[in-house]
Amino acid sequence: MAIDPHEFIAMAGAVTLPIPAGDRLAFALFRNGTRVGSQILHFNRRGDTLTVHNEAVLKVKLLALTVFTYRAKVTEIWSNNAFLSADSQINDNGKIDRVHLRRTATGIAVSGGRIARYTAPASALPLTYWNKAMLNGPMINMQTGHTDRPNMTKLGWTKLPALPSGDVRAEGYQLTGPIRLSVYYDRTKIWSGLSFNHSGHIDYKPILG
Questions:
Q1: Are the C-beta atoms of 42 and 24 separated by less than 8 Å?
Q2: E strand or H helix at 146, and its extent?
Q3: pTM here?
């Protein structure tokens, strides 16, 4: 069933999206204090359509031997500031996972290798962090396809170290329950940091400039 653009804007509760200056976000990834990777997002706008290309690469080494690798690619499509679709391919140390999201007349159709096809609530958004509206929940995990609504606690404002130097003032939110992490946004709602545990403690430091 086709959806009128104005209808899915209403269903998604669309607001102006927090697109960064230069249409790009970049983070350095650290594991237990050692730099192990990066995550880069590109925001491509054409008319009322926004395409977000999101790629993360993480490689953990022991001496000269690579003991863990993680590579994620997610592409999101938004129209008139409302979420329309997303596709992911994630290589988690050799295991490939894919998730596909599509807005329909009844909600968000979710399919993937780990789950049976189902429909998530129309207000659900992908767990890709850059859009602070994600915190309103529910959130769709782009590796497993599960839809979760974690508990959330505000951590207050703090200064996060940035690269190559300086810091970013951001407000933190701690998620607990099925999703366990801390995510940070600056005063303009731009994603500014992330920390969680996955084969060690992972910290995201924003790369400025």
A1: yes
A2: none
A3: 0.87
Q: For residue 88, give both structure tokens.
A: 């992911």
Strands (E), 107-200: 108-112, 115-120, 125-126, 139-140, 147-148, 151-161, 167-176, 181-185, 191-197
pLDDT digits (tens, 9 = 90+) for 60-100: 776 666 667 889 999 999 999 999 999 999 998 889 999 99
CATH number for 5-206 (one of 2.50.20, 2.40.230, 2.20.28, 1.10.1660): it is 2.50.20
pLDDT in tens, 117-168: 999 999 999 999 999 999 998 999 999 999 999 999 999 999 999 999 899 9
Peptide bond between residue 18 and the one before it cis (omega within 30 degrees of 0): no
Label the pairing between strands 125-126 and 139-140: parallel
Question: Which residue, 9, 41, 8, is CA-closest to 26?
Answer: 41
Exposure string for 88-123, b = 16+ CB within 10 A, e = fewer: bebebeeeebbbebebeeebbebebeeeeeeebebe
Q: What is the distance between the alpha carbons of residues 110 and 8, in angstroms, rounded to a whole number?
A: 16
Q: 122 in the Ramachandran plot: left (φ > 0), alpha (ψ -120 to 50) or beta?
A: alpha
Domain ranges of the chain: 5-206
Q: How confident is the model at residue 16 (pLDDT cuts 50, 70, 90)?
A: confident
- Name 112's bridge partners: 99, 115
